[in-house]
Amino acid sequence: MTCSEFMALLDDLLDDDVSATLRADLDEHLSGCEHCFITMNTTRKTIEFYANRELYPLPAPLRERLQSAILEKCRKC
């Protein structure tokens, strides 16, 4: 399996939506490819982080400055 093939299947792997045979192929690739192993772990941790996020209210002045900055940036595009 190539890194490109692995990356094309990464979403399915993380969603646990692969057959046992395909999972074995993916695991074999991971055992010998540090780049794909790091990419998979980083992606998994990112998903977990955002899935567990808490919303924090912003103070009104900060929210207004942030909104103004975003709108100004959008006008320039």
Can you walk me through this structure?
This is Putative zinc-finger domain-containing protein. It comes from Acidisarcina polymorpha. It holds the Pfam family zf-HC2. Residues 3-36 form the Putative zinc-finger domain. The chain is mostly helical and 77 residues long. It has a single domain (3-76), classed as Arc Repressor Mutant, subunit A (Orthogonal Bundle). It is built from four helices and no strands. Helix 1 (3-14) packs parallel to helix 3. It is elongated. The mean pLDDT is 91.
Q: Quick check: average pLDDT?
A: 91
Order of helices and strands: HHHH
Beta-strand portion reads under 5%
Give me the count of strands.
0
Total number of distinct structural domains: 1
- How far apart the termini lie comes to 41 Å
The geometry reads as: elongated
So what's the CATH class? Mainly Alpha
CATH architecture: Orthogonal Bundle
- Main sheet characteristics: none
What is the percent of helical residues?
Answer: over 70%
According to CATH, the fold-level topology is Arc Repressor Mutant, subunit A
What low-confidence regions span 5 or more consecutive residues with pLDDT below 50?
Answer: none
Compute the gyration radius: what is it? 20 Å
Secondary structure category: mainly alpha
The count of helical stretches stands at 4
